[in-house]
Amino acid sequence: MDATLLEMRGISKSFPGVRALQDVSLEVLAGEVHALVGENGAGKSTLMRILGGIYPRDAGEILLRGSRVEIGSPTQARQLGITIIHQELNQVPALSVAENIFLGREPRRPPGLVNWDQMYARAGRLLAGLGLSIDPRRRVGTLTVAEQQLVEIAKALSADAELVVMDEPTAALTVEETERLFRFIRDLRARGVGIIYITHRLEEIFKIADRVTVLRDGQRVGTYTVAELTMDELIRLMVGRQLTEKFPKEDVPLGSPVLDVRGLTRQGLFRDISFVVHRGEILGIAGLIGSGKAEVAHAIFGAGPLDAGEILLDGQRVIIRSPADAIALGIGLVTEDRKRLGLVLPMSVRANITLPVLRRLRTAFVVRRADETALIRQAIHDLDMAVTSPEQIVRNLSGGTQQKVVVSKWLQTRARVLLMVEPTRGIDVGAKVEIYRLMTALARRGVGIVMVSSEMEEVLGMSDRILVMHEGVITAEFPRAQATQEAIMASAAGRVHRGV
Amino acid sequence: MSVPFVESVLLGAILSGMPVLYAALGEVIVERAGVVNLGLEGVMLMGAVTSFASTVRTGSAALGVLAGATAGGLFNLILALLVVTRQANQLASGLALMFFGAGVSALLGAPYIGSRIAGLNPLQIPGLAHLPYLGPLFRSDILAYLAIPAAALVWWGLFRTRWGLSLRAVGENPAAAYAAGYSPPAIQYQALFLAGLFGGIAGADLSIGIVKTWAEWMTAGRGFIAVALVIFSRWHPLRIVWGAVLFGGAVALQLQFQARGAPVSPFLLDTLPYLLSLGVLLVWAGGRRHAAPASLGRVFEGTK
Fold first, then answer.
1. Chain B: residues touching A (Cβ < 8 Å)
2. How far is A141 from chain B (nearest CA, A)?
3. Which of residues 90-109 of A touch B (CB under 8 A)?
4. Which of A219, A244, A269 marks a domain boundary?
């Protein structure tokens, strides 16, 4: 049990503009479940990608059973006995369960054939051993996500891995399935396998992990024995530092309720979501990935049907069946995926900003160029966009400026409600502050803002009020003055905050 | 229906269908590996001209087939270089390859226009060759006999061997195949070369097996029919056989109508096989998209 299986020493990794990991060390013993935790963006995934041979590291060394190893590819990682079960499953939906399990290490039969009988028999035994009643001949694409997850775990077990990394393995599992997974994990541990367990569900750590390493902002906070730690201590270690004045939030007097949603429900994603946003208010919605918070914003915008609930705008009941309806009613959506959904990357700033309002700028079929230019100049000036000309291609702008173009587009439509999902994702720190300033300016103009974010800091820093979601329901509501990172984290992890 | 009519149509179905079958078998291999080869027409033309010229020069039809297959395989490596190594757009590259093949084959074939050769000899199967109705099927050349076994071989290769499994995985999810230790580019190169061999044989079958002469652009769109057949067979080599026979039958049928002076414009009759292909696509294509390899036509950029 005491043998050191894996040592990662002084690992550093930078991406253009971001220091993802800085001098991070991690030590995993054989027969240990080692949890790896940190907020989104703390560097967990990057560290595991380095371990899995997907990213090269900039500095540091990796030792396996005491000897230095170089892991240049996923194949090498596997040959060294390292198996990574990714959050996004790397499966081939059109192939069978058995083919997926054994892809790359099929039971062979000369000349160059697959021993299909043996493959299906082995897959069958493997699945049965895990208590799974999945036909190994079924196509993986026909399985539920949970079943696919379990197939992935079966694959790891069949590979005789010495070190198994599980990245959020329970995200799609039910309670029973999670219990079954924990039994497998304990079984693996008893066999001397080392397990790195990544999760956002902190309560799981106390159920299954022996030790925990906490990462924050790409650095290692420390490694702790789980038995000597409380949930509150763990949360404090994760969120750590004080908030600095990075958030130019002003108190804006609140106006009348502009958006009022009641009992919004969409099967399997969220249920009974009710809240009110006032003019000039920034409502933050916090929650982990998969909590359904982004889906709520999308649903209000008319992207995806509602099973129940109603939406009132300025006190009037409205029906929103499509984004076109939402736009016509004065609702804007700043998507988390601006490159795919928010912008036409190969087109100019001019085209992107005026696209939704060309109707207003035309005479018959011709766009009034002079009016368009005047509008663009005003927009660029208003948001202080770093562009050299309205003809600049959006693809070449920085993330922050791109986001301003998206926001500007919605300002042209005279939106009264702006839904912002992960508004600063992938944007560097300086530009983030500008986006926050922009939000404040919008609020001052009387726009009601719903900010959905996984970044705890910005939720705390920018919101007048904070809702927390967990598994599709609102578990807590905090006024700005009462919100703390610890309380939000606890609610996001599923603890119901009393006094809602 | 008279015996000669049925015999002619059957023979015609085999004769016209088999080159398309060979070409489509090659195409199904590359498409299962995630590459669309619209240049198939050009590959067939290269195979046709090379095999014809080789047969004229050496006097051996067997060497002609070999040369045609090799030419097709090598020609397809140009596409591999473009779409696998250089990661160019597959559709544009394929069309460019098609026109390139048409041009080069016209150039190489110019001296041979009008030449006639004995080509591949028909092999009569004793006892069967003189059956009524079915007789013509047993008086074909070697390539016609081997076409359907070739389809079975391709099926076996794709669905029974390790190579086939890896190839299908590449066509569906190259990142997963890479993570499992396979090299998507290497597999796509292999698939394109092999498909080129099939395309070359298809061309050889046309020029030295069936028509026994060389004419510019003698494939007359059969390469594209083959691409369509792959889609309507839902990327399954055995179902391609039916499509190829259907197409060949339509060609033979319209030729017979023309020969017998049916009171329909010959130009309209000429379009019959293609109308049939369109009709089949119209009926079968919808709602079957899920059968296509998931990464068909996409560029695998490797993992960052």
1. 160-163, 165-166, 168-169, 172-173, 175-182, 293-294, 303-304
2. 11
3. 90-95, 99, 103-106, 108
4. A244
Give the Cβ contact number of residue B132 at 10 Å. 8
For residue B151, the number of C-alpha atoms closer than 13 Å in the C-beta half-sphere is: 25
Q: In chain A, which residues have their Cβ closer than 8 Å to the Cβ of B177? A: 92, 103-104
Residue-wise pLDDT tens for chain B (304 aa)?
Answer: 577 787 788 878 877 889 999 999 999 999 999 999 999 999 999 999 999 999 999 999 999 999 999 999 999 999 999 999 999 999 999 999 999 999 999 999 999 998 888 888 888 888 777 777 777 777 788 898 899 999 999 999 999 999 999 999 999 989 888 878 888 999 999 999 999 999 999 999 999 998 899 999 999 889 998 998 898 888 999 999 988 888 888 888 888 888 888 788 888 888 888 888 788 777 766 555 557 888 888 877 664 3
Chain B: closest CA distance from residue A150 (Å): 17
Q: Does domain B5-114+133-284 fall into CATH 3.90.180.10?
A: no
Looking at the structure, tell me whether residues A448 and A322 fall in a common domain: yes
Domain end marker among A217, A244, A271: A244
Domain chopping of chain B, boundaries: 5-114+133-284
How many A-B residue pairs are in contact by the CB < 8 A criterion? 65
A484–B contact, CB cutoff 8 A: no
Interface membership of A75 toward B (CB under 8 Å) = yes
Q: How far apart are CA A101 and CA A391, in angstroms?
A: 51
